[in-house]
Design a protein that fits this description.
Layout (H helix, E strand, L loop, with lengths): L15 H11 L2 H9 L6 H11 L7 E5 L5 H9 L2 E6 L9 E5 L7 H10 L7 E6 L9 H22 E12 L5 H10 E7 L10 E9 L5
Parallel strand pairs: 1-2, 1-4, 2-3, 4-5
Antiparallel strand pairs: 5-7, 6-7
Helix pairs in contact: 6-7
């Protein structure tokens, strides 16, 4: 898709970082493509690429989408699966077929709320896929930022290990350039296959990549 380069009018009203973000949005072909196809964010194309590569979703699947807002990943997942449970601190407009829980999934009572929602769809309280496209707000310190994203990943994995059905899948965002051996070891303990995947729709200047873990071995507890 050809890129459309545009300049911002009255750009002096914005900070330098805001100008850069706005120009990137305006000139991003995936932003335009998302609007054309009715998706809430360009991030949906990353999940589409992951699904096309690894065949994540099936019609009978139940999916838990962590950090779901504004809802692009949930929008796609529900077209492929039976049910999506979307979770975010921020409010999110409704999506047909998606159950939304506004909470901090790190909070003590959040797992109970998620389990209760899963119980509406199966008595074993499991899901087949856990998604996490979460990233902490950037601090400007690469070391701190990396530790924050690892903490989110580990917390997501901990939840996944409790609610995933055997054979299930986990997808989580990580940033290149930091040490990730610990989280890789944890994933390999729980899953048969663990892969890095950098979608083509991920911005070229972004250090983000995704960990795709397949074949959940089951809860040892």
């Amino acid at each position: 898709m050809p890129q459309k380069f545009q300049n911002l009018k009255n750009s002096h009203r914005f900070s330098k970082s805001s100008q850069q973000w706005l120009k990137r949005q305006i000139n991003d072909p995936f932003v335009e493509k998302a609007k054309e196809q009715g998706f809430r964010s360009r991030a949906v194309f990353k999940l589409i690429e992951i699904d096309e590569k690894f065949k994540i979703f099936k019609k009978n699947h139940i999916v838990v989408d962590l950090g779901a807002a504004p809802g692009g990943w949930s929008q796609y997942a529900i077209t492929k699966c039976r049910k999506v449970i979307a979770i975010d601190l921020l409010d999110m407009p409704p999506i047909a077929g998606v159950d939304f829980l506004q909470c901090d999934f790190l909070a003590e009572n959040s797992q109970t709320q998620i389990t209760l929602m899963l119980n509406h769809h199966n008595k074993q309280n499991y899901c087949n896929v856990v998604l996490s496209d979460m990233a902490a707000n950037a601090s400007g310190n690469k070391t701190i930022d990396h530790l924050q994203i690892i903490n989110l990943l580990e917390s997501s994995l901990l939840l996944a290990s409790k609610i995933l059905k055997q054979g299930g899948s986990f997808i989580g965002k990580i940033f290149q350039g930091g040490s990730s051996e610990t989280i890789i070891m944890q994933l390999k303990q729980h899953f048969s296959i663990v892969k890095y995947f950098k979608p083509k729709s991920s911005r070229p200047d972004s250090a983000e990549t995704y960990l795709v873990a397949l074949g959940f071995k089951g809860n040892s507890n």
